[in-house]
Amino acid sequence: MDKAAFSGFYKKSIAERQEIVAKEFMLTDAEKAMLTKEGPLPFSVADRMIENVVGTMPLAYGLATNFVIDGKDYIIPFALEEPSVVAAASNAAKLSSGFTTSADEPIMIGLIQVVKCPNATDSLIKILSKKNELLEEIMKIDPILVKFGGGPRDIKGEVLKTSRGEMISLQLLVDVRDAMGSNAINTMAEKISPIIEQISGGEVRLKIISNLAIHRKARAKTTWTKESLVASMGPETKMAGEEIVERILDAYEYAVATVFRTATHNKGIMNGIDALTIATGNDFRGVEAGAHSFAAYGHEYQSLTKYYKDENGNLVGEIEMPMVLATIGGTMKSNPMAQLSLKILGVKTSNELSRIGASVGLAQNFAALRALATTGIQAGHMKLHAKSLAAQAGARENEVDLVAQKMIEAKSFNQLKAEEILKEIRAVK
Ligand code: MEV
After folding, report:
1. Pairwise CA distance, residues 167 & 178, whole Å
2. Known catalytic membership, residue 381
């Protein structure tokens, strides 16, 4: 590869860049065809989304079923690469009594860092005494947002004592309606900064949204009855519903007790939430940052879900976490798959989408805990993995299931085994 071939790469067209890639990395015809094949995200759109575009990267797009949220049926698009996640969420939703949810107003926080104040505490008092005037000024910055019922709501602040001296951290609270809000908030924070400098006598440095969206949380709650838990285990199970509930509660307590388990517990929650976030064209890094910082907000890193028994001994699950899922703004409008997802979901507002996100997170977490606390996670995972190995070994459509089944029976999951079984099957035919 000649590094010089990539000089001025950003100035080239996508076709020119693809040619360079093909030449410099000696792509085969098949690889070049793969790179140049346009998918649902048109190259022209991708080229405006990020820089130096040479192609698009697909993910599997599947639909989670059986969700009833606040009495309404939903089919939920997931975009991800991991087997079993869609099946697990659909199954958890089917076993549940349906989700009841709520979500906050879409208030996001814009941070403004002020340094070098003559006296940080006095400067903060001065800024906060002018709060109403400042809010009025900020209101003028985004009249469209205000027209749609959003806009600045409050200004808070604190003096931070740091190793580089005192600094002020202002929090600008803005109702961003159905958007994620970073553009609106960053613009407001930047434009109001000269006035903040005048009032404070200090210097404004960082002006940026906070992903710790504590004012924009969503919640979901549901019950899994002992009966549904037994039914979920299949006819051969010897476990009673009470035992399954106890096992899940032990699994939950494990996540409460050690951060090594909490990390993976919360990762499982994010499996579903990220998949929905990506499918709807939302900022999954922002949602992730919000989730994990909230899990550690004011206490040690904790589970985002909670489980307990109700008076009948059934399992109740709850989730509460920041959920910044927009239905407008960003690149959502130009991404046809994101638009398709919103159509399948039938949602128009960020509030509704956030409540769906919370339900998905809870369902996903329950499914993982149930599997881990009973049969183990690999049984389900391995079914799909075996199918994928069978296909890679060259099994045809009508052979895949049989090869996978035989791998499961043999409890052996590798490419060689798949090829060996395929040979045996074909020999018998
Ligand atoms: C795997 O992607 C997710 C799980 O590890 C979650 C968990 O352990 O709770 C199964």
Report:
1. 32
2. yes
